[in-house]
Sequence to fold (113 residues):
Amino acid sequence: MSWKNILKIDWNASEFYVGKYRQYERYGGPEEGGWWYFNYDYLGESVGPLPKEEAIAAVKALNNEQKPPTEFYENLPEEDKDIARGFNIASGIVYQLENKKGDGQHMEREYYE
Fold:
């Protein structure tokens, strides 16, 4: 799994945390050919404080150990697949750098503007 930090980080901080999140990929709507967004639910687990380089290495290593996201579409009953076809909604565990424990909690619904 490739890693891209989703949080706005103060990279000049002296210490960082590594937080565990459930990442949800959600279908936003059909505008401009369809668009997707991610929500992040903090699972209450953070390690740290750590020096920046150690925290980055930990995040990369932990994310490389994760299983691929669960594709909810694959688990739908056959009679529901026509309704959800193409939505490709998924969920998985990701680790993120944080300046404070739980910084990345983001469960708001996003809207097309």
